[in-house]
Amino acid sequence: MLSQPVWVLDLASERNVYANAAGLRMWGVASVEALRAREVPAMSAVSRTRLEEVIRRSVSGEATFERWTFYTASEPQTFDILMQAVRLGEGDVGILSIGIPVRSDLSDRRAAEALRYSRDQITFFDSDGRALYRNAAAISTYEADRADLMARFADAAAGDRFLEELRRTGAAQAFVEVTTAAGRRWHGIEAVATLDPETGGTAYVVGEHDVTALKLAEANLRLREQELHQAQTMAQLGSWRLDLSNQTYQLSRTLSAMLKLDPEPIDAAKANELLHPLDRENFSSLLRGIFNGAESAEGSSRVILHDGDVRHLWIRCAPERDASGKLSAIIAVVRDITEDVRARQRIDFLAVHDGLTELRNRAGFSDALDQAMARTGQAGGSLFMIDIDGFKEINDTRGHAVGDTVLVEIGQRLRNAVEPEGIAARLGGDEFALILPYRTDRRELDAFARRLVADLCAPVMVDDVPVLLAASVGISLWPHDASDVGNLQRNADLAHYTVKAEGGGFAFFDRSMRDAADKRRWVIDNLPRAMKSGAIEMHYQPLIRLSDGVRVGFEALVRWRDPVRGLIPPDRFIPIIEECGLMATFGSHILWQVAAQIQRWVAVGREPGKVAVNLGAGQLLGGDLVGDLRAILAETGLDPARLELEVTETVTVGRRTAEIVSTLETLREMGIAVVLDDFGTGHASLTHLRRLPIDRIKIDRSFVANLGVVNADTAVVRAMLDIARTMDLSVVAEGVETEEQLARLIAIECPLAQGYLFGRPLPPEAPDFWRLDDGVAVGAGV
C-alpha cells in the first residue's frame, strides 16, 4: 500500500530478502527473487558502525529514525529511514526499513558531492543573481544567456518576487515557468543564502528540478506532494489492522505506545470509545468508504487517552482482500499530528492575540471593534484607549524583564475589569484598549473609569519591590462620537492625548478636541506651502527711546495670511510648530526674511535701527542656529549689529541650560545682541540671570498693565530697573497702551518701551509705516 520503499535486510546473510514495489524500484531490481540474489553493496566502516547501533537499539525494543544515502541506481538516493529489528524464520534477525525520500538538502555538507552529480540543476549565484557555478544538469538545461537567475524567469515579475523573498528572508521556494534550452518548462526552485568563500559576501545556492509533467497532472501532483509532506514531517508512524471476522483491531507496537495502550488486540467497540465523540462519525465514514469499494480513504480524528490527553491522528485506510478477492480486513497507516494541530492553533491564536499578555493584538482588536459596532447598532458602546505613563522609564531603569512582568499584570487587570462582556487588547508597547459593548451611560462610565485608573495605578510588586505606575485613558462612545471604527478610535486617541498632556487620569472625547486636532493638522499640512508662497509675513512694531521719543528699532512679529482664515496671529500656530519639531526650519525662514528686509531698508536710505526677532526653543535646542545665522549674514551681507535675538526665561531654564548659554555666547561673539523676553514671568533666579549672556531685558506686559494700579507691580518694575542698571543691561517695557503707563515709566526712568500707544505691528508696505521717523511727543500722546 505504501508509496514509500519498504525492505528487509537479513543480518545473517547480509542480503535483502523482501521489498515492496517501491523498494524494488529503489534497489533497481524487478522482483523479490532478483533482490535476494543480489548482494548488498559493501558498507563503509562508518555505515557498518551505524547499522550495529541500529541493531543494538532494536534488541532493546527501540525503533531508529535516521537519514541514509544509497548508491543503488544511476544517482545517489537519500531517505529518512524508520528501522526496527524483526524476527525472521528459523530464529534469524532482520532489519525492517521504511524509507521516506528526501530531496537534496542544499545546506547539508554531507550531500555536497551528491549534489554535484545530481540530475537536479544546482547553481551558485552571487548577491546580484549572477551565476558563479553550475553543475552539469544546470549547464545542459540553460543556455549561456539564461545562466543568470533573473534571465531564466519567463515572467519577470515572478522573478522579482522570488529574488526579493530570497534577499529578505535568506530562503525562497517557488514553482515557476522558466525559459530553458528545451523551451518553456515548469521548475520547482529552492534557494538558500550562504557565504561566498571568495568575497565573504552573501551568495545563494539554487536547486531546480523539472516538474512540467507533474504540472500537467496537477491533481496527481497535489496528492503526491501531500503524501511527501506527511512522510517528511512524520515523527511517529503507526498502523492498525481491523480484522472483519472478529471485529478486533491489532495495533502496531508504535501505535500502542502512541496511545499508551498494551500491544494486544482491542475490540472494535472499545476502540470506538477512545475516539472523541464529535469525531466518531468521521471515522465511521472512512471505514464505510472502504466497505463501499474505495481503494483508500483518509482523514483525521481525535483520540482521548486514559489520562485525559487528547491526540490528533491522521489515518489512511486501505482494503485487504483474501485469495478470493473478498474484503477480509481494513489496514491503516497512522501518524500523530497533535503537535502540528497545536502549532496551527497557536499560530491562529497569535494572529489575533498578543504573545505576551494573550490579550487581543492590534489586528484582533480592529476585528473585534468592527464586529461590536455592527452587532450593537444604535445601542452603541464605548472604547477606552489606555497608555501606561512613564513605562519607558521602567524598561530603562529596571530592565525589560521587569517591564514584561508589568505588562502581563496590566493585561490581567484589564481582563478582570471587562470580561466577560467586554474585550481587552494590547495594541503595542504600553498601549492598551478596552471595548465595552452596550455601555454608553456617562455616569456609569465615569465611575468605571475612576475605578479603572485607580486599579491601573496600583503598584506592581516585582521581586518584593513595588513598581509605581500611572495611566492616561481616553474614552469615546459609539454612535454618539463616531459611527465608524477609524473615527471612533481617533476620537478616543484625542481624549487620551489630551489627558496625558495634563498629567494622566481619564477624559471623555468632546468636539473641542477634534477642532484642536483639525487646527493642528491644518497647520502641519499647510505650513510648507505657506512658507514657499510668501503667506508667512513679518510685521514690525517700533521700539521707542523714552528720553526723547525717538524710534531706535523694531520687533519683528510673524503673521500667517490665509485667503480663507485671514491674518492669523502667532499664538495660533507657533505652539503647534514647536510641538511638531518644525521650529528650526520655520525660525530659519523668518530670520532670512528679516535680514533681507533690513537690507532693503538700508538700500533705500531708511534707518531701521536694531531689529529684534523672537527665537523658539526648537531653534536653540533642535537645529543649527549658529550655522543658519552665519549663512544668512554671509548671503545677505547684513551687519550683525543690526540684529537682536529674543529668548524667553522658560527656554533658558532646564537641563540644557549650559548648552543654551554656550549658543548665546557664540551669537554675541558674532556681534548679535541677545534679549531676555517676558522677564519676571519665568523661573530665572538672579544667579541664573547673571550667567546668561544677554544685553537687554524686556519687562513683561503684565507688570506694565498694573503700573499705578497695583503697588506691588510698580515696586517689582522699579526693582527690575535697579537690577538691570547694576548689571549694565538695557531695559524695554512691553505692552504700553495708555498715557498713564507711559508717564509712570518715564517717572521711574525706564529707558525703552514698545506697545500700541506708539504703534501696532505693521507690514513694511503699510502707508504710515514710517510715521514715527520724526519722533514721538512723549507725554503728550502719539
UniProtKB/TrEMBL annotation:
Family annotation (PROSITE patterns): EAL (PS50883), GGDEF (PS50887), PAC (PS50113)
Domain (EAL) ranges: 520-775
Pfam family of the protein (one): PAS_4
SUPFAM superfamilies linked to this entry = EAL domain-like, Nucleotide cyclase, PYP-like sensor domain (PAS domain)
Q: Which residues form the PAC domain?
A: 297-349
Q: Which residues form the GGDEF domain?
A: 379-511
**UniProt cross-references to NCBIfam families, sorted A to Z:** GGDEF (TIGR00254), sensory_box (TIGR00229)
Q: What is this protein called?
A: PAS domain S-box-containing protein/diguanylate cyclase (GGDEF) domain-containing protein
Could you tell me which species this protein originates from?
Pseudoxanthobacter soli DSM 19599
